[in-house]
């Protein structure tokens, strides 16, 4: 049995000293404005996992108006979502992510991000795809006012036949 989930997260960029993507610090003159640690890659993947098993979104499980989630490590959100899909008998076949950001360029970080996500989730690095693109200076992302991540996950469940 297969299930597909999609996730998206968008945040405002503000003047700062870098931000997290997949648990890796990205050197930048910008930071991500957020209630948690702002790791929108983990947020988007988490929403994709929850959506695939019809469990809503991370806002239902980790509200952005709660003191308990203030500055929360987003890897913990992702690990919670992994546990939830495992409880339902599902495993990740693959996760495909696209990050939209004008700058800085993310190519130097992508291998480290994939390694960190694989380590945290006990996935094989080939199960994780991360692509980064710009918006060719168009819109709020092109003006360095925002960052966006799209994630798609394919889950599988082994069905035992009698």
Task: Kindly describe this structure.
The protein is α+β, with helices and mostly antiparallel strands and 162 residues long. It has one domain: 2-C-methyl-D-erythritol 2,4-cyclodiphosphate synthase (60s Ribosomal Protein L30, Chain: A). It is built from 5 helices and 7 strands. Strands 4-1-7-5-6 form a 5-stranded mixed beta sheet. Strands 2-3 form a two-stranded antiparallel sheet. Helix 1 (40-52) packs parallel to helix 3 (74-87). The chain is globular, with a radius of gyration of 16 Å.
Task: Please name the fourth-level CATH homologous superfamily.
Answer: 2-C-methyl-D-erythritol 2,4-cyclodiphosphate synthase
Tally of domains: 1
Helix vs. strand class: alpha+beta
What is the number of beta strands?
7
Mean pLDDT: 95
Portion in helices: 25-40%
CATH class: Alpha Beta
Looking at the structure, the CATH topology is 60s Ribosomal Protein L30, Chain: A
- Helix-strand pattern: EEEEHHHEHEHE
The percent range for strand residues is 25-35%
Calculate the terminal CA-CA distance, rounded to whole Å.
16 Å
The number of helices is 5
Low-confidence stretches: none
Shape: globular
Radius of gyration, in Å, reads 16 Å
Largest sheet: 5 strands, mixed
What CATH architecture do you see?
2-Layer Sandwich
Widest sheet: strand ordering: 4-1-7-5-6
């Amino acid at each position: 049995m297969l299930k597909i989930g999609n996730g998206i997260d968008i945040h405002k960029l503000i003047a700062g000293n870098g931000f997290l993507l997949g648990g890796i610090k990205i050197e930048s003159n910008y930071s991500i404005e957020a209630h948690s640690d702002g790791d929108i890659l983990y947020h988007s993947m988490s929403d994709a996992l929850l959506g695939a098993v019809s469990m809503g979104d991370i806002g239902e499980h980790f509200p952005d108006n709660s003191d308990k989630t203030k500055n929360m490590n987003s890897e913990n959100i992702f690990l919670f979502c992994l546990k939830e899909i495992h409880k339902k008998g599902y495993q990740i076949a693959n996760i495909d992510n696209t990050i939209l950001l004008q700058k800085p360029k993310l190519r130097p970080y992508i291998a480290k991000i994939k390694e960190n996500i694989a380590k945290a989730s006990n996935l094989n690095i080939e199960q994780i795809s991360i692509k980064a693109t710009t918006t060719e200076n168009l819109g709020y992302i092109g003006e360095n006012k925002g960052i966006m991540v799209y994630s798609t996950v394919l889950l599988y469940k082994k069905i035992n036949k009698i």
